[in-house]
Design brief:
single chain; alpha+beta; four-stranded antiparallel beta sheet; five-stranded antiparallel beta sheet; 186 residues; Alpha-Beta Plaits
Length: 186
Amino acid sequence: MSGIIRAYKRDDEGVLHFREAWYDEDDQQFVINHGVVGHQSKTDETDVDDDSSVDGLMTAFAAQCEEDGFAEIPESEQFWVVAQFALKTKDGTERDRHFERKAKAALTGELAWRGLGIVDRTEIGNSRLNVFCLCPDVNKAVNAIKICVRNEDLDFTKLSIAAAPHSDPTAFRLKHSPKQGVGFTL
């Protein structure tokens, strides 16, 4: 067992919580990240002396999640949230590719540390940069993306955000736009 385990649970008030665990090979630590979805998480690290114990730690974490009522949310029950930035050229420039890397890194961190999902991929074309995020909670993800774009100075005036169910990636609905009355096109 390797990679990352990510699990969610709604409490009695309907608040979505998350737990995730992974092995950080560089620091030789087993990392558990947890919290309320949409809020900065708490992280606990445990030093691992022997890499062979990682599978056991991951298995124990998965078992504890299951026992506590946490489970993975299947992709089919999540949402595509796309952060779209207007570009000046149709196919993008080297400067746009640098911006793409910066935006992807910033959004990856913003979403991950709040249990809001992952950046699945980016695409440049048709005078747009699209950052595709797979998220369990649309509204919280949209808010986090807007905050991140402002905090990272990623040109909020060029940002549009749309969301669609994972199962219907053609049903994007605009959630944020710098201009009123504008539609959303990938």
